[in-house]
Amino acid sequence: MSTETAATATQVAAPSPAEWAEARAQVYAAGLAAALPAVDRPLTDADGHTLAEPLTTRTDLPAFPTSGVDGWAVRGDGPWQVVGRVLAGHTPSPLATDGTTVEIATGAMVPAGTTAILRIEESTRTGDGRVAGTPRPVTEWREPGEEAYAGEELLPAGTPVDPALIGLAASCGHDSLRVRRQPRAALLVFGDELLTSGPPGAGRVRDALGPAVPAWLRRYGCQVRPADVVGPVADTLPEHVAALRGALVDADLVCTTGGTMHGPVDHLHPTLAALGAEYVVNTVAVRPGFPMLLARLVDGDGRVRFVAGLPGNPQSAVVALVSLVAPLLAGLQGRPMPVLAQATLAEPIPGRGDYTHLALVRIDRAAGTAHPLRHVGSAMLRGLAEADGFALIRPGTSGEVGDRVPVVPLPLLPGERAR
């Protein structure tokens, strides 16, 4: 009997579902243990990566005394005799004599010997061409090291690289950054009943996850090419095994949709058995979406890859993404475990008994309130399209108006759905 046939014949007992927070912690630890290797990226290609080592400055910031205004660098008391000009990008001669001044531009290096800077708009010229005025009592230039000293740690390893960090790195003198390689992800869509174009009908439904899941994964920092999305894969064990084996060649993470239960055409579990995978998490006590899973495969050379089994119902699949895939990818990229913000419930949300309830909500950021949405069935996407995330109602509880609850965010880009 072949391995694949044996895997089909083996009856798998239904596991006890893991508690939601425990499952989240387990997959984060698994990702962190398999954190992706560090690589050097030029600043122009570092956006969206993660610092693999702390960002430090190569010089004092600023590196030299820098004028904060357009005006006059003066020495001693006025009126002052003009002896030159200094512009940004030049090294000036010292002011060696009291009663002298040079015109200075914003950002220019302050000459040695300067005792004050007089703003241009607060200066006048005397009849003999001297400069007169009263400098403000505050220092009008930035001292070396005012922002940071050479070698000082500015941001820790694990910080996501964004445009602000890139600008800071450039100001520190860096041309490249040491970052974690971005995860490569693939998606396998299971289900003979799925259509990939046109409206649903005649017993077949339109695949909503094939187009959507790669976009979610990119928001989590993954690289997903069009060729990495495969399906619908035929509902047979050999087709499942071949598709997953092929996807694992290049991917660090393969997400699958559907097939996470043990029905007659649910082949994911025997496929994982055939490929020698081990479960990190197998079902989670969360509603919707509990038949989710994360499995790990380790090659002979130690290379680690992961398979995230997402339920076939669209909202349940997204619950699996925020529950298992988000912390896994944080670990793989060497980022801290995502911390959940809190919001105040504007309306009640029922509990789900012994299960964690992740309820779709829209967040009013000005008021700090979470508003439950309609159209939130596990097969529905209308509520998801309006949502900012999921309110977390813990097992054995219900959410009452005024309760402060954690909110599991959707992976939105900066500025999306800001309210």
UniProtKB/TrEMBL annotation:
Residues 186-331 form the MoaB/Mog domain. It comes from the Bacteria. Its EC number is 2.10.1.1. One of its GO terms (cellular component) is cytosol. SMART domains: MoCF_biosynth (SM00852). Belongs to the MoeA family. The keyword Transferase applies. GO terms for biological process: Mo-molybdopterin cofactor biosynthetic process. It holds the Pfam family MoeA_C. It comes from Micromonospora narathiwatensis. Catalyzes the insertion of molybdate into adenylated molybdopterin with the concomitant release of AMP. Its cofactor is Mg(2+). Transmembrane segments: none annotated. Keywords: Magnesium, Metal-binding, Molybdenum, Molybdenum cofactor biosynthesis, Transferase. The lineage of its organism: Bacteria, Bacillati, Actinomycetota, Actinomycetes, Micromonosporales. Pathway: Cofactor biosynthesis; molybdopterin biosynthesis. This is Molybdopterin molybdenumtransferase. It catalyses: adenylyl-molybdopterin + molybdate = Mo-molybdopterin + AMP + H(+). GO terms for molecular function: metal ion binding; molybdopterin molybdotransferase activity. CDD domains: MoeA. Signal peptide: none annotated. The keyword Magnesium applies.
